[in-house]
């Protein structure tokens, strides 16, 4: 007679094998992990399950959901390439979902992979949102008439969309000016120049842009791979297109825009502005736009002042603009206040670079790009120093002539 204990063990092993082979068991375990927010482990469970049960629709649906949740997290953290890949995986599991194709297209657009983004968005249907992003691709790559056509079609489908109305209004303001511009190119820049400007200026500007690409790129640790549009305007056209303040010497809004009317050759001042505005390109890409204005402008001033040092207002420790105010935009400031804002931003940022080094500043920008607040980004980047933003600002204030007491970070 066989050993009953051996028989019991064999039965238990068989039951365990049957249990492990049950799709419902995999699905239940994965759902528990999803409920806890552990999408990475849930993904591994579901990938193993679908490899064993490739035709189980519920497992495929759960796996697609998990890929989608991971993709959303990547998007929020500014990890656009991984987000696009996770949306692709989800879309392969649910090929009938136009929304997943649309989200992948958006992620590819944000990653500036314009060709792949366009292909994906064209398959996402004729809805308003695919048309908006197709228009953004056309706009970013210099096809302003094409962008307007796509946005107007989107507006017909979504007439109440105020953001879309703003895009159309902006493009309609730019088109009459840009349609008469001449074109120039270098290795990384697409230059559009008002036909009224001296023809020899284009080559000098392109040379300065390439120098800025190398110099600022080395400081910030980034060399963009996507071509960058640059537009040179007469001062009148610059004012009408940008609606910026009178004191504005340049603008970056996804394109570098420079008012250069009245000059016949590249001046040190214009070269400095080119370095300044190109730095904004790098900061925008590194931080995904999550950056306080004082740090953004401070870094741009550091690069620009390597080429030309302007006359600046004296700044003393007992006459400072609160850092909280400097974190917002400067465009609403009058000329004198704006001059102080730029100078204070420069001095604060210069202090950080000199005291902690470019690598630490690069780390601050990296953490901002991951969605951290400025306070958190500084604390993480300067953890070896055990410093937070308030402490950094306090040290900077103490280094100024006539330094007072208090906390400028408030």
UniProtKB/TrEMBL annotation:
Protein origin, superkingdom: Bacteria
Assigned keywords, A-Z: Signal, TPR repeat
Peptidase MA-like domain residues: 240-400
Signal peptide: 1-20
SMART domains: TPR
Placement of TPR repeats on the sequence: 64-97, 128-161
Pfam families: Peptidase_MA_2
Coiled coil: none
Record's keyword annotation contains Nucleotidyltransferase: no
Protein name: Peptidase MA-like domain-containing protein
Native organism taxonomy: Bacteria, Pseudomonadati, Thermodesulfobacteriota, Desulfuromonadia, Geobacterales
């Amino acid at each position: 007679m066989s050993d009953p204990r051996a028989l019991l063990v064999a039965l238990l092993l068989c039951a365990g094998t049957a249990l492990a082979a049950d799709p419902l068991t995999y699905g239940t375990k994965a759902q528990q992990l999803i409920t806890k927010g552990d999408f990475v482990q849930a993904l591994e469970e579901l990938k193993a399950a679908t490899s064993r049960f490739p035709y189980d629709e519920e497992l495929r649906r759960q796996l697609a959901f998990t890929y989608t949740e991971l993709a959303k997290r990547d998007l929020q953290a500014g990890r656009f390439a991984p987000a696009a890949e996770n949306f692709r995986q989800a879309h392969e599991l649910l090929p009938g979902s136009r929304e997943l194709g649309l989200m992948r297209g958006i992620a590819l657009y944000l990653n500036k992979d314009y060709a792949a983004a366009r292909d994906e968005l064209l398959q996402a249907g004729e809805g308003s949102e695919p048309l908006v992003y197709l228009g953004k691709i056309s706009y970013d790559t210099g096809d302003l008439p094409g962008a307007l056509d796509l946005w107007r079609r989107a507006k017909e489908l979504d007439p109440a969309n105020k953001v879309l109305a703003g895009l159309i209004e902006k493009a309609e303001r730019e088109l009459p000016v840009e349609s008469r511009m001449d074109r120039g190119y270098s290795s990384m820049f697409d230059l559009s120049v008002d036909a009224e400007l001296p023809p020899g200026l284009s080559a000098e500007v392109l040379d300065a842009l390439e120098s800025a690409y190398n110099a600022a790129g080395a400081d910030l640790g980034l060399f963009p791979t996507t071509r960058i549009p640059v537009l040179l305007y007469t001062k009148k056209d610059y004012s009408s297109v940008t609606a910026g303040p009178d004191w504005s010497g340049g603008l970056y809004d996804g394109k570098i825009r420079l008012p250069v009317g009245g000059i016949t050759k590249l001046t040190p001042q214009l070269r400095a502005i080119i370095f300044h505005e190109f730095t904004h390109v790098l900061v925008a890409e590194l931080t995904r736009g999550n950056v306080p204005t004082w740090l953004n402008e401070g870094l741009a001033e550091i690069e620009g002042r390597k080429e030309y040092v302007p006359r600046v207002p004296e700044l003393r420790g007992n006459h400072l603009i609160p850092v909280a105010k400097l974190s917002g935009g400067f465009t609403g400031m009058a000329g004198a206040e704006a001059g102080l804002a730029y100078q204070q931003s420069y001095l604060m940022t210069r202090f950080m670079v000199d005291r902690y080094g470019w690598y630490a500043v690069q780390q601050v920008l990296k953490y901002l790009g991951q969605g951290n607040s400025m306070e958190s980004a500084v604390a993480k980047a300067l953890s070896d120093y055990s410093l937070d933003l308030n402490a950094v600002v306090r040290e900077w204030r103490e280094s100024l002539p006539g330094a007072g007491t208090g906390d400028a970070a408030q």
